[in-house]
Amino acid sequence: MYGCAPSGFVSDCPARLAIEILSDKWAVPVVWSLSRGPLRHGEIADVIHGVSRKVLTQTLRRLQGHGLVASEAGTQAGYRLTELGATLIEPIRVLTDWSAQHGGAVVDFHEAAAVL
Known about the structure:
Blueprint: H1 14-22, H2 27-33, H3 41-47, H4 53-65, E1 69-72, E2 78-81, H5 83-86, H6 89-115
Antiparallel strand pairs: 1-2
């Protein structure tokens, strides 16, 4: 059974799983890119600058393994978010808003710490 211990994150805690999934460098950009609708592999790579095709393929497979992304068949073969994957859009939006509001303070802290 999944659950979080009151004293912290245990190995089977659902929150720990979510953090593990989202801490992958390219998972959030891939999920976010698919939030507007299905895209082909090359289109995802165009949206997410800096990801190699190989790493993008690995990320898509990992997200498929978690049930968050599905591949589409047909002439316009591509990838789409599953219903479960779509539930990540709001948490990602919250984290993005937090970053916009507090990211400058984090950068300021890093710069001040580098001076010391």
